[in-house]
Amino acid sequence: EKGLIINLSSISSFYPLPFLAVYSASKAYVDWLSRALDYEYRSKGIVFQTLLPSYISTKPTSFTKPGYIIPDTCTFVNSALSTVGTARRTTGYWTHGLQWWWCEHLPENLWNLFSWMLLKMLDNGKLQFDKQEKKHS
């Protein structure tokens, strides 16, 4: 092989994501683009891999604590790198793979409902956190 390109998509590319439509659409684009380019450049020895993770504990998701379901960045990166050469499309982390399997078997209307409920809950938690910060300021 002459090259490897890893593109970061998201599990949110599986179905449209209410309240994050542009995000989920752009992640679907990254997935489809990587798959097409992998086919085009495979004969030249260039491999395209798409990572489709779920939540990872990062600064933007600081409301999450790392664990088995939501890995920290180091755990995720080490796991994802272990898939290089074995998978062209992967969630990169074992519990994210279980979530992907669940999504594959979930009707889109339930995905929309669960996504809506989760995002509203997260949004409410952030808003409450922001209000608490303002009170203490």
Mean pLDDT, to the nearest integer, reads: 84
Largest sheet: 3 strands, parallel
**How does the overall form come out from the CA principal axes?**
globular
Order of helices and strands: EHEHEHH
CATH topology tier name = Rossmann fold
CATH class: Alpha Beta
Spans of at least 5 consecutive residues with low confidence: 127-134
**Spatial gap, N to C terminus:** 56 Å
Roughly what fraction of the amino acids lie in strands? Answer: 5-15%
Number of strands: 3
Number of helices: 4
CATH superfamily, by name, is NAD(P)-binding Rossmann-like Domain
Radius of gyration: 17 Å
CATH architecture: 3-Layer(aba) Sandwich
Number of domains: 1
Structural class given helices, strands, pairing? mainly alpha
Describe it:
The chain is mostly helical and 137 residues long. The protein has a single domain (3-136), classed as 3-Layer(aba) Sandwich (Rossmann fold). It is built from four helices and three strands. The protein has helices at residues 21-41, 73-81, 94-104, 108-136, and strands at 3-8, 46-51, 89-90. It has a three-stranded parallel β-sheet with strand order 1-2-3, with helices on one face. Strand 1, helix 1 and strand 2 (46-51) form a beta-alpha-beta unit. The radius of gyration is 17 Å and the shape is globular. The model is unreliable at 127-134 (pLDDT under 50). Pfam families: adh_short.
